[in-house]
Write a structure and sequence with these properties.
- The protein is 77% helix and 0% strand.
- The protein starts with 9 loop residues before the first helix and ends in a 5-residue tail after the last helix.
- The chain is mostly helical.
- The chain has helices at residues 10-38, 46-74, 79-102.
C-alpha cells in the first residue's frame, strides 16, 4: 500500500456495527424488562415513584432508545461514533445493574 492510500476500514466498521447492534439488542431486552418490572406500582410515596418508575424508564431511554436512534444514523458513517455508542450502551447497562442492586430492598 502506498503512503497516499488510506487503509480499508470497512471491515472494522462492519465488526463495530455488529457489536454495537448486539449491545443494543441486549440493552433493549434487559433495560426494557427492568423498566417494565419497576414501572408497575403501587408506590407509598412520590419519592418511591421517582426512584422506581422514572429512573428505570430513564435508563431504558438512555441505554436503548436514544443510542438506537443514533446508531441507525451513524453505523455506516463513523467508526469512532459507532464505538462510542457501544461504550455508552455498555456503561449504561452496568449503571442499570448497579441501580437494580441498590433497589433490591436490603439484606
Amino acid at each position: 500500500m502506498k503512503e497516499t492510500e488510506s487503509p480499508d476500514v470497512s471491515g472494522g466498521r462492519v465488526i463495530a456495527a455488529g457489536c454495537s447492534f448486539l449491545m443494543l439488542a441486549v440493552n433493549t431486552v434487559f433495560l426494557g424488562l427492568l423498566a417494565w418490572s419497576f414501572s408497575h406500582g403501587p408506590y407509598s410515596s412520590h419519592e418511591q415513584e421517582v426512584w422506581y418508575r422514572y429512573r428505570s424508564i430513564g435508563y431504558f431511554l438512555c441505554g436503548a432508545v436514544l443510542p438506537g436512534i443514533a446508531l441507525f444514523f451513524t453505523a455506516k458513517r463513523s467508526l469512532i461514533g459507532t464505538l462510542a455508542l457501544g461504550a455508552w450502551m455498555f456503561a449504561t447497562l452496568i449503571a442499570a445493574f448497579m441501580y437494580a442492586i441498590m433497589s433490591s430492598g436490603g439484606v
